[in-house]
Amino acid sequence: MKRAHLLVVGVYLLASCRAEEGLKFPTYDGKDRVVSLSEKNFKQILKKYDLLCLYYHEPVSSDKVAQKQFQLREVVLELVAQVLEHKNIGFVMVDAKKEAKLAKKLGFDEEGSLYVLKGDRTVEFDGEFAADVLVEFLLDLIEDPVEIINNKLEVQAFERIEDQIKLIGFFKNEDSEYYKAFQEAAEHFQPYIKFFATFDKGVAKRLSLKMNEVDFYEPFMDEPIVIPNRPYTEEELVEFVKEHQRPTLRRLRPEDMFETWEDDLNGIHIVAFAEKSDPDGYEFLEILKQVARDNTDNPDLSILWIDPDDFPLLVAYWEKTFKIDLFKPQIGVVNVTDADSVWMEIPDDDDLPTAEELEDWVEDVLSGKINTEDDDDEDEDDNGNDDGDNDNSDEEDNDDSDDDDDE
Amino acid sequence: MKRAHLLVVGVYLLASCRAEEGLKFPTYDGKDRVVSLSEKNFKQILKKYDLLCLYYHEPVSSDKVAQKQFQLREVVLELVAQVLEHKNIGFVMVDAKKEAKLAKKLGFDEEGSLYVLKGDRTVEFDGEFAADVLVEFLLDLIEDPVEIINNKLEVQAFERIEDQIKLIGFFKNEDSEYYKAFQEAAEHFQPYIKFFATFDKGVAKRLSLKMNEVDFYEPFMDEPIVIPNRPYTEEELVEFVKEHQRPTLRRLRPEDMFETWEDDLNGIHIVAFAEKSDPDGYEFLEILKQVARDNTDNPDLSILWIDPDDFPLLVAYWEKTFKIDLFKPQIGVVNVTDADSVWMEIPDDDDLPTAEELEDWVEDVLSGKINTEDDDDEDEDDNGNDDGDNDNSDEEDNDDSDDDDDE
After folding, report:
1. Does B22 contact A at CB distance below 8 Å?
2. Per-residue model confidence (pLDDT) at position B376
3. Interface of B with A in 228-247 (CB under 8 A)
4. For the range A384-389, what are the long-range contacts, defined as Cβ-Cβ under 8 Å and sequence gap of 24 or more?
5. How far is A373 from A354, CA to CA, in rounded Å?
6. Quick check: helix, strand or coil at residue A220?
């Protein structure tokens, strides 16, 4: 660990050096908290902590860029370890070559990944490798896997969560064997999917839950799917969630963004950019939700919604890579292997496409009529029959009259 | 600039080194983009950019810690400059000693501050000095100062913004002199306070806006204040906003957290922690809103709501400094000079205080009955008549029966 520290001790973080008491951002204090794992110290370390966070890395090479990357990640981990020092979480590095046997035993297969051991479970972190994202991920992981809903206001809170998958079950009490199965199932998906439960008849009635029933809510859908054949075993619940895990419309989240990006359909993503806090973005998102609700039974459709506010550092990169303006809503198709893309023509953000127009466009994407390859020749030959990369020319020919019923 | 770079080139940022196309976090490329400002190059640089971002710093000292801090900030600025390279924003450093004359001319008075020149306006940034926060701040600053509301869905979006001050005006059209005054006023507060306008009669009717009227919405209040004596000049609008800028309940935001923290009342803040995405936190926030609505006319009351999700890196620091558990809602009084604090006793997060109980507590704080000093002796003498720092013992004696009407 020493070499890395010589270079970067105290350099990270961003740290406001203001003197105000009550708002002090942490700076790395230079103390070594992240240790190298070996077969020798493994058992002892595992016993010591409630949670063990393992960074599984390729052998540190002599390549300078790779070294910097590695040191960077090490400092991020050190800072996270420092910040969470009182939470009984261990942090270790696992060298893929030196500790190949141990890694195999632990089931690690992707170098550069971060794994967390919690009891007999292994959770993979596949999100933005930043201190704040990691801290929040770990804090979520040490909370109870099931959140209890006790009263009307908490039902409201539950109902307001619309941008992620959620499950809720109604059980007799905490000792119910079905509640226990539900808890065990929740642990499989913690912290990525939220599980709620109630023991309150009033709450159950408001949510139309029968005893021992669990409802599954897809993001942005008003009506849940009642999981069939209650009561359920842990395995049945886990299987159901796994089968329904890819929604029609989902929000890209820092904590599992890479996993989501890898979960493409036939090598592409339909990506929609909309800033929810902006009136145009909000409006576009409402239209997207409508499209998702109308097509929730189509297994070939999964739209990825990105709120630029969640990724300020990527906004400029996306604008350059996709040649679009992210001050207004956008929807397009992105090829995940080369980031080639085509985008729907939205001439004016005061005149967004209707749900019907969006559905037609989506259909053209799914049928292959709109795709990322068709315009490539055009770009190179510069035929000049349209003004650039914004759209597939088919689109323009078909949809001349999109001025009418926007409201 | 060179010295700093030798140490930290490429060390910042966090950067995921994944190879997925479409999600590449930026790493600093080592190129110098931030320049030192002097009277010589000032005019030329100012002319070159739409926006000029100036870091006004004390002379770099020989103290190692101060040097590191300075270098850190420099790298953050370099990364921000790199990311926003195509947006025509300039980034400069202003040495407080070397360029004292220039700084005075520019009206800079707080060393360590970041100022942004936009036309003839100077905007001070007093938030978290992190690349993502800064990028978002600057992107917000180059957007139009007024957002136009065109239709029903956008009204919905407008109505959903409840956690910050917002203004909306109804004007004849873009050429209206009153709209222009409104735009000018908006620029005084951009990007901290959102200004909206509509030219649509239907929208105006829905929001009960008369022609040339501007309504001011305090955070979390259902009903706006109609600014009196329309139509208004720019100065009248600016004055009104300045007078009403401190709300009864406000959310701590990364982009102006230090400014907010400095805006204490008699050296204290009433601070409430509530995680909005959590059912208990949501419930507590609803109760807080109730208290705020009931007391909106009390100029001595300003509650600071902190959502721990907005500040993952500060959670552990707050837990240690304030000796509280942030997995559940908390409300307390914090002395801003020494961060000494007392917290309301909330024995069980399934049994949160009612709005009435909270109001009683707030009254005791405002009257000085509950304060951060009373328990200090107790702590030192360790009289042992209560279990720690959680509360003022007065509180415990008075409120034995808080088990009843929570729902």
Report:
1. yes
2. 65
3. none
4. A388/A323, A389/A323, A389/A341, A389/A342, A389/A343
5. 26
6. coil
- The DSSP secondary structure of A333-376, one letter per residue, reads EEETTT--EEE-----TTSPPPHHHHHHHHHHHHTTSS-SSHHH
**Alpha-carbon gap, residue A338 to A10, rounded angstroms:** 37
Split at pLDDT 50, 70, 90, the class of B241 is: very high
Residue B57's identity, in one-letter code, is: H
Tokens of B375: 């328990």
Angle between helices B131-142 and B64-83 (to 10 degrees): 40
Q: Do A309 and B136 touch (CB under 8 A)?
A: yes
CA of B45 vs chain A CAs: smallest distance (Å): 23
**What DSSP line would sit under A227-244, residue for residue?**
PSSSS--HHHHHHHHHHT
Q: Which of A216, A159, A220, A227 is nearest to A193 (CA)?
A: A216
Of all helices (H) and strands (E), which one includes residue B331? strand B330-335
The whole-number pLDDT of residue B70 equals: 86
CB distance B121 to B187 below 8 Å: yes
3-state secondary structure of B406: coil
Q: Do B313 and A25 touch (CB under 8 A)?
A: yes
For residue B226, what is the enclosing H or E element?
strand B225-226
Helix A131-142 / helix B312-322 crossing angle, nearest 10 deg: 60
DSSP annotation of A265: B
What percentage of chain B reaches a pLDDT higher than 70?
A: 87
Report the DSSP pairing between strands A249-251 and A303-306.
parallel
According to the model, what pLDDT value does residue B401 have? 41
ipTM of the complex: 0.85
Residue A399, pLDDT score: 41
User: Per the structure block, which two tokens stand in for B184?
Assistant: 């000018």
The percentage of chain A sitting over the pLDDT mark of 70, rounded to a whole number, equals: 87
- Percent helix, strand, coil in chain B, to 5, is 40, 15, 45
Backbone angles phi, psi at B324, to 5 degrees: -130, 165
- State pLDDT tens for residues B174-211: 999 999 999 999 999 999 999 999 999 999 999 999 99
pLDDT at A149 over 80: yes
pLDDT at A20: 61
pLDDT for residue B6 is more than 60: no
What is the DSSP pairing of strand A121-125 with strand A113-118? Answer: antiparallel
Strand stretches in B80-161, DSSP E:
89-95, 113-118, 121-125, 146-148
Task: Specify the pLDDT at position A372.
Answer: 86
Residue A303 has φ and ψ, to the nearest 5°, of -95, 135
Helix (H, G, I), strand (E, B) or coil at A147: strand
Q: What is the pLDDT of residue A376?
A: 64
A91/A173 Cα distance (integer angstroms) = 36
H/E run at residue A287: helix A279-294
Rounded average pLDDT over A257-276? 93
Q: What does the alpha-carbon distance between residue B236 and residue B152 come to, in Å, rounded to a whole number?
A: 30
- Containing A137, the helix (H) or strand (E) segment is helix A131-142
Please report which confidence band the pLDDT of residue A66 belongs to, taking 50, 70 and 90 as the band edges.
Answer: confident
CA distance B34 to chain A (A): 17
Average per-residue pLDDT in chain B? 87
Name the average pLDDT for chain A. Answer: 87
pLDDT of residue B15 exceeding 70, the answer is no
Q: Cα(A121)–Cα(A145) distance, rounded to whole angstroms?
A: 13
Chain A residues with CB-CB distance to B14 below 8 A: 72, 76, 128-131
* Residue given tokens 């809503």 in the structure block: A329
3-state secondary structure of B369: coil
Within 8 A of A55 by CB-CB distance, chain B residues are: none
Q: What is the DSSP letter of B308?
A: G
